[in-house]
Amino acid sequence: MSVSFVCYLADLFVYGAPSTNEGVSAFQQNYIQMANPQIQTSSLRPESCERSTFSTGAVVVTFYPGPDIDENLAKIASQIEQIVVVDNGSPVDDIERLQKILGRIPKGRLIENGSNLGIAAALNIGAREIISLGCNTILYFDQDSRVDNNLVECLQQHLIKGGSRVGLVAAKYRDGLTGKPCIPEGGRQRDQFYFIERIITSGTMMRSETYEQVGPFREDFFIDAVDHEYNSRIVRCGYTLGMTENTLMEHSIGNTGIVQVGEKEVRTSNHSALRRYYMLRNGMTLTMEMLRYSPSLACTYGRHVLYNQIHAMRYEKKSRKKFVVAYFYAIMHAAVGKLGPASESLLCQLTE
């Protein structure tokens, strides 16, 4: 039984489940014991945790970075001990710009992948570098996340507050389009702390030892579902996920927009046809994997995947022809288990 398959199942199993008075959902407790009997759920309760000395390093993944990257990196660097930028194949002009920016940051360094290895590989490369530099906590960011001045301190405090049971703590973020705080579905607040089942990777902090125990991000997914798979694997290892009460970051998912449908405003992410390929392929892959363990969960998740794609086809102003091509190949590749990056021929067909 693949650990990552079980991990994702755990994530879906706890999604939306009622929480206990300890901040850990009852389904989480039951599933952890069912899947890994040697883990006692009593160990998930908060333990006394004295303030320790944090040495935090940030991993920032870049790919054709925008004009705000200078300000974003400077603000992150001012709050931490080390910053590692992992570039996934940006053009020479962008590389030179990153080199100049990091040249002004004594604790900054750039790792050039030379090509797009995917978000998971870039995160793993950065995390290993941060650990090799002696940092005991790792912070992850997308290139366009805009952080507040107290983000790192607040995340560290919440990591301490949650105790040893918290494997990952996330910054609550403002939507880049609306400016409103985003609380993940299923999040439950307790003692100025949100307990959540899934969260985006950007703005999250974890202990280095937790990364080494849970393992690397899943690279064959390349880009989509990488964060949620990792969230679920953390839960599988007996940890919980937490999020700050205060909003500490601004972030947008996709090319966010609003479509007016009558009197109703419909939110769209406006992802490219290529991203839709990855979303459907990985979503179907996960659905088929879940069929081995729980047909009901597979049905629930499959409906979620299908809804997202229908929503995109209906409301997003993209080439429907390219979407149809993306969906065709996504279904074919999911059926035969073909993962990893899209082929050059498929890239040519889906590139806009």
Automatic annotation (TrEMBL):
Keywords: Glycosyltransferase, Transferase. The keyword Flavoprotein does not apply. GO terms for molecular function: glycosyltransferase activity. Residues 59-166 form the Glycosyltransferase 2-like domain. It comes from the Bacteria. Belongs to the glycosyltransferase 2 family. This is Glycosyl transferase family 2. It comes from Calycomorphotria hydatis. The lineage of its organism: Bacteria, Pseudomonadati, Planctomycetota, Planctomycetia, Planctomycetales.
